[in-house]
Amino acid sequence: MQIDLAFSVDLLGSDTVAAKANQLYYIHREALKRRQIDELWKARRASSPRSLAKVLLTDSVVDAIRKELRQQSGHNIDPKDLARLLRTTIIRPECFDRDNGTASKTKKGQE
Questions:
Q1: 3-class DSSP state for residue 19?
Q2: Per residue in 66-77, pLDDT tens?
Q3: Three-class SS string for 42-70?
Q4: What are phi and psi of 22, to 5 degrees?
């Protein structure tokens, strides 16, 4: 099971009272009835580093990067080498599964 933080509020922090109240709204009864925290979670999950790393390493994105690099430099890099370079030099290590170095593919509440 994987637990992802949807939001956090530091009540003693330097944020304005309005900003803190806006975040706390997600645990208000009305917001829970409307399942707005689920929408917030989906938005955060979609833009998380793991999700972005997963997209960056898809065949279509790697191919588009390879084509752009070929156009700019004249060098035609192998897609496997480009994906390896992205994994080892561009994308932060915590964006990957610990076991195999691939972008995480976990679903909400599952590992």
A1: helix
A2: 999 999 999 999
A3: HHHHHCCHHHHHHHHCCHHHHHHHHHHHH
A4: -60, -40
Identity of residue 85: L
- Please identify which residue in the block is written with the tokens 């990067």: 65
Whether 52 contacts 94, CB under 8 Å: no
Supply 41's token pair: 């979670």
Task: Name residue 84's amino acid.
Answer: R
User: From its phi and psi, is residue 74 left (phi > 0), alpha (psi between -120 and 50) or beta?
Assistant: left
Q: Is 36 helix (H, G, I), strand (E, B) or coil?
A: helix
Helix (H, G, I), strand (E, B) or coil at 27: helix
* pLDDT > 90? residue 60: yes
Q: What is the largest CA-CA distance in the chain?
A: 58
Cα separation, 35 vs 26, whole angstroms: 9
Extract the tokens encoding 31. 């917001």
Two tokens at 11?
């009540």
